[in-house]
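A quick aside before the break. I want you to see a complete sequence-to-structure record at least once, exactly as it would be stored in a machine-readable document. Don't worry about memorizing anything.
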Amino acid sequence: MYSINVQDDTGSNAKLARQIDTLLNEAAPYVEKTTGLPLPETVAVTLVDPEGLGTALSAFVRRQAERETEGLKLTAYQQRKLDVAPMATRACAHRYWMTGDSNLVASSIGRPTTLLVPEGLEHQGLNTPDLLLDLLVRALVKQAQVAACAGNLIPPLFYPIAQPTQDAVEALSTGHARWTSNEVTPLILGRAVVRNQHHRPGAYQGRRCWAVSSQSVMRDGAGAP
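That is the input. The structure line, written in tokens, reads:
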């Protein structure tokens, strides 16, 4: 059994938080039935401002980078990328916060949280009822994916050490989430969701942005925060 916790860290989006809570409670049973995956004990969604997004993503990337490279013998260049990863991620979030739809992070023990920036959703038109439901169903699926592997495998956003499997994991995760939304949203809405065809997934934007930001940080000789 799961509980749903929607937290508004912005202090100014209580109405949106209530709407998200309602949609999550409506969609969650459908997601579990369609995927066959149980949701985590706590489905956590947090509304953040751009600064909060940068702080949360930076901390997440630091944890994941250390976890993914534990015990590995890194080259000097790889270690440098590891060191600048949090700062580069923060810079990326500050610059491109309005281009992604949601960000999945996890605690040190693998408990997932979905981060949403209300201004970003509004900017992209993703705060309409249909598109918000689509986004939240996909977020539920990704949290169920994390729970299914006990937090041992989290769909990657930005990593300093490229692993061959990362793009495949992200593609599988995103594809599964989108397929589930295609199945679930018509059951709730009575119609299919028409998505913005020009919108690029947040993970794509994140990897591209992190690559540019990390190169800039390394070139400028800045250290990690």
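Two observations worth writing down. Residues 50 and 97 are 6 Å apart (CA to CA). The first strand starts at residue 3 and ends at 8. We'll return to this after the break.
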